[in-house]
Design goal:
Layout lengths: L8 H8 L3 H10 L5 E3 L2 E3 L2 H9 L3 H18 L8 E8 L3 H18 L5 E7 L4 E8 L1 H19 L1
Antiparallel strand pairs: 1-2, 3-5, 4-5
Helix pairs in contact: 1-2, 5-6
């Protein structure tokens, strides 16, 4: 019998493009199910897939995007120039985006510094990806190029 692979809150956040805080909120409100082992939550692939099958999940992703933009607009005391960019990228398959997202998340986890805030939504019916990026202009530009380059590379 094969062992079940377990994922941490950080793993689920990296795989989904959500924050650890959002994952914990989904645990609290019952949107995401998992198992608490000691003091840490652990999730199976079925638990993670169940999150995406949740009827309201698309709406919740939209709320995350809206919150990122709203937080950006509300923030008044800034020490430096910042920007918020929304990329709508048509004709992207979900598989292409998932492959690209894994690479991007790995880079974010390794780099930490100079990484802008990042949210995304994939609309299956329209085969359209929407990415929201907020932060320092040079970091936003670098992330936008990385998203586009990653999708182009993965598609080839």
């Amino acid at each position: 019998m094969l062992e079940q692979k377990w994922y941490t809150v950080a793993d689920v956040a990296a795989l989904t493009g959500l924050t650890s805080r959002t994952i914990r909120n989904y645990l609290k409100d019952g949107t995401l199910h998992g198992k608490k082992i000691g003091v840490q939550w652990r999730f199976t692939e079925d638990d993670i897939n169940g999150l995406f099958q949740e009827v309201d999940f698309g709406q919740k992703l939209q709320e995350i995007e809206d919150n990122l933009v709203a937080d950006f607009l509300k923030e008044t005391a800034r020490d430096e120039e910042t920007e918020c960019r929304i990329l709508d990228i048509p004709d992207v398959t979900e598989e292409e985006w998932k492959r690209s997202l894994k690479k991007i998340r790995r880079e974010i986890d390794e780099k930490k510094e100079g990484m802008p805030k990042f949210a995304w939504e994939y609309v299956v019916e329209e085969k359209m990806l929407r990415v929201v990026i907020a932060g320092k202009p040079k970091d936003v530009e670098r992330m936008a190029k990385r998203v586009k380059r990653g999708l182009k590379t993965d598609a080839e």
